[in-house]
Amino acid sequence: MTTKDTPIPAIPTGSVAPSTPTAITGGPPAAIPASPNPTSGIGTTAAGATLALGRGTTGSIGTNGVTAGGPTGGAGAARRGRLEAYGIGLLLGLLMVGWLLPAEVLSGQGGLWRSAGVDLSQNLSGHLAYQSGPWHWPLLVSGNLFPPHGLSIAMTDSNPLLSLVARIVVAPLAGHPVNLFGAWIALCWLLQPVAAIYAVRGFTPPALPRGRALAIAAAAAAMALLWPTLLHRLGHTNLLAHFCLLAALGLAARALRDGTPLRFWPGFALLAATILIHPYLFLFAGAVLAAPVLRPQPGGWRGLLRPGATFLAMLVLPVLLHRLLSGTSGGADRGYGFYSMNLLSPLWPQVSGLFGADLPVLDATGGQYEGFNYLGAGTLLLVLLALILGWRRGWLGGWRRWAPLLAVLASLTAVAVTPRLYAGPWLILPLPAWPWDQVFGIVRASGRVFWPVGYALLLGAIALLGTRLPLRALAPALALAVALQAADAAPLLGEVRNRLAQGDAGLTPLPTLPPGTTLLRTALACPATAADTTLAERLRLAAVQQGAALAEIRASRQPRWFNCETALTDALETPLAPGETRLLLGPAIALLRPAALGPGATCVRQPNAGADAVFCATTPHLPGTPLPATAPLPRLGAAPVLASSWKPDAHGLPWSEGPRATLLFTTTAPRLRLTLDGIGRRPGEARDITLRIQDAPPLTLSLPDLQPTEILLPIPDPTRPVRVAIDIFRPIDPTRRALAAPVDRAGVRLRAISGVD
């Protein structure tokens, strides 16, 4: 019995197609001549013969899959086939966007943007702050963040590519900063199915019968839109760009399928875009694009030189571009292994519409929520069918063509689940963190590394079944898989839709920001609670939306010179600037010395649901309850003048704790004498410190280890409160030097302080 597909006999290399095509019946397959060129084939038949399906040929698919190849139906037919396939993806994307995103979310005005949590507030603050103020160099630096230094919006995960478009094109037309993240979310869901079709077409012969090609395209598009990992990512809007990973898979698959070099310009453009969207996407896409370079090359290692150099340029040039525009490359951070993937995560149902919406994300470390990679019931069905039928019917004989990609995917999986491999709650392989954290530390949330692997499993299963199953069996199988995937993803879909329309749940009302604020500085305890961090980030966003600059902001990689203790003490102990507002939250409120904020400063308390906020400003009539009067600042020589981060030892000598220690007092003396001991990182090693008194320029000093050094400082204005700030880079744990100290991070020891006439 023949299928409805038009069968075409195989054409050996250099032969001419016979004039009368013959069908392949359900009986024993006819012998098919193998292509002498090993790179021209696409797979093998059930009998193991290589298919001659290179460029310019098309295959027919009978009951035994792709069985033959012949001339294409012309450029016009191929173009129509592509338009139809991508049209399906575009239509499905438009339908998903229309169903998911209310107009107010798309415009960047309401819904999620009225009630954004900590991550979205951080991203949006950088995005909006970047669009106002003068240009800086490097170009991605915003002077409205950490003034006067500025901060690259790459460090606030504010999608530099999108923010550049907003600043150069949209904001000038609108006359004010514009939130493009709503349009970005729509773009991600619009391109997701289109990119999935592009990718799956790379895993199939260059031309397929129309009905089969459309079935494969529709299934890939629908499954990509219902991908649980994508639906789980709404809180990180930049990381919704999974279409970049699908595009990388499509490029790599075409090069492996056709035996052609990886094309430089498409690969470079993709990697340049991904690094300006989010570095994680760049790393994952770059790993996938390495697969064609890993295949055996004619001429041995010498043949590898050209494709290797091309790929290296493709990889390095975007990094240099990012460095040039951003001024920083970020860097490694702690967390590798903590945010890993649980080994069972792809298989075990989590937040599942079929097995239980209340099933939690598998998390054995406290951070494996970042490794959520459940494939979904429909994907698992397709992968299982592909493995069973492929094994029993001998469809897997062409796997060697894909060996480089399989090696890359296996390596990505290993990075995702290590160094401490958990299967559910059970620790299977307890590898030490070192040296792996030194190599992969830049991939802090390593569980995300599995994303391309999951997509490759889906696309590979669809491609194998789509080119092997008869159409009468293929269509129901794909339809069943899509239905199962939709039912399984229903809870996540509902959560995404509700969150887009209503915003993040459980957020407290925001206190009222004082009018006329041009600079917001926040004071949070070190470390701050999650509730205080979230409230501070939301208020920073509110300040940016009112046109204010931010003295500090939460960032994925903070500047080298920034630390929490410095920000806290600066907010508590320095005079207010005109237009500046200080926000104090939680335990930081008890540390406030209003007299240090200068004349005319007013501090009011605004009780908030679940949090306590204090605002300080020079603005009259601040909304809130004024704080009760506090004791004046101590006078030098009459009372202790230790302000922040000191602890006395058994002899009464104060030791600094952490990277910043301060003194705060009043005096009439024109000069100040300090006697300090340096605490070197090693015995005999000098301790470098930076010392600042009032608003005088900072002074860098080198103190001998455990030896007293007398320092004489002029006081710029003795009529004002005197503040001495001592900054220590990388304080040391004194137990490493067997020092009996009352602190955990030591830098200096204060022996004496006095005024000098």
From TrEMBL:
The chain crosses the membrane at residues 83-101, 181-200, 212-231, 237-256, 268-292, 304-324, 336-357, 372-391, 449-466. Residues 17-39 have a biased composition (Low complexity). The keyword Membrane applies. The keyword Electron transport does not apply. Residues 1-39 are annotated as: Disordered. Residues 91-489 form the DUF6311 domain. Keywords: Membrane, Transmembrane, Transmembrane helix. InterPro entries: DUF6311. It comes from the Bacteria. It holds the Pfam family DUF6311. This is DUF6311 domain-containing protein. It comes from Teichococcus aerophilus.
